[in-house]
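job 3f2a | input accepted
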Amino acid sequence: MQVQPHYPKPKRWFAYLGLALMIAGAALAFMIRTGDGIEVRDIRFEGTDGVTMSALLYVPEGASEEMPVPGILTVHGYINSREMQDGFAIEFARRGYAVLSIDQTGHGYSGGVVGQNGFGGPDGLAYLRALPFVDADNIGMEGHSMGGWTILAAAAAMPKGRSRGVAGITMDKAARRREKEELERQLEAGRALGAFGRALGATALGRAAPSPPRAARDAGRARAGWRGQEAWRQRGTLSTSPGGASRRPRRTSAGSRSRPATASASCGCWTRT
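job 3f2a | predicted structure (273 res):
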């Protein structure tokens, strides 16, 4: 005679407790997300070549055609979705910004393939600027990881009226010139990445996959090299001769290294269009 194993009956109160926690968590998340009069809309719009774009639109309290508010385009990174930017978008909206958090092409509910149409950045920026309650002359962009490529492609597609703001930093003329040169390199990389995205879209038609754009690689290397030299200069272990060649700093009589007469710094910021 075969003995059947005995399994204890599940305690129902565990299920009830789990259901109660789920409902409470959902209610708390809804309260946080829509607090301070924020309205969150799930939207779809048509992008380049008819590609469907998906986004979440966070509308702050008091935004209207009579009183337009500044806008921010937020973009997630690779293999992610629009909800990834939820925390940032909520805080921006609480402070009076209209926020558009898009799904990149080939991600989330957006159509197309990864990298197509500049990763969806130019289409997202165009949609945000066209909203009647958004001040089209006061737009910012923020991207995480590959979302940085997306906002660079958007800035390159719509360069008119763009500027760059750095808060809380005083820079000498040389530092401002380097910042301007770096911005131009980033925009050139954005144009190259936009072309690379269009080429990636062509791979869906059976063509060979292209190599990463040289301009983007060169811009990244130049940026990394400049940042590294700035760090060495601030530590006093590297200086630049009038001819532009790097040299070791001379030692003083006490044996310590001499430091540059002026120091410069920079910080991350968003692009304003």
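job 3f2a | Helices lie at 12-33, 86-94, 121-130, 147-157, 173-202, 214-235.
job 3f2a | closed
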